[in-house]
Amino acid sequence: MLHRPVFKALLSHLVAILITVAVAQIAARYFQTLVPPWGLAGIHGVCAATVGYLLGLDRWWIPINIAAPFAVLAALTFNAPVWIYPAAFALTLLVFWNAGSDRVPLYLSNAKTWAALADMVPEDREFRFVDLGCGLGGTLIAINKSRPNCLCYGVETAPIPYFLSKLRAGGAATVEFRSLWDVDLSAYDLVYCFLSPEPMTDLFARAKMQMRPGTLFVSNSFAVPGNPPDETVEVGDSRNTRLLVWRM
What we know:
single chain; alpha/beta; Rossmann fold; seven-stranded mixed beta sheet; 9 helices
């Protein structure tokens, strides 16, 4: 249980509290200085982010750990009602549901990535595309719009992104509340994912076992250790996005 990211994050903040209290006491006793609340929040945030990183949390936890004490301080400063804390926690959980279990945060593909993916879809035949962890559904909608011959599917298990994706996609794509591990990859001509380093080895092994010869497995940004891609597509956006392409 202690290897789960949520427990590492909690431990990071507990350690940060101890360090912050120690710094405040040292400043008061030896330098006759009271560190202001926003300064304490900054010390806490930096310590939590550093400890979390040393414990093995992914880099996307860094801004979350830094921002957390500032959010709490802001709520206390402006006398936020008590219910706001569980409500904020519940909302965060419903959006980033996969981060705690599969270590897959909510990453969103952009318009240039959609265009690069569309270029991989032939226009002269029916083509099946699946987005494993489709987020808010933007990729599915964009691919369907530019390639009407493409049957687009998406799966998502974070409740709020799933609901929004389902609502936005309408008749343009099929979106299911399903784990990516329950998808039969043999049904698709192009399997796309924008996940994290954590699941890539196991997912690629499933792709090699299930996908048909001639189909494409495409990962946004995240490599498969020990399995170099057959092609790397530089999207050319501000994030320096790369699409790693394997031909099955």
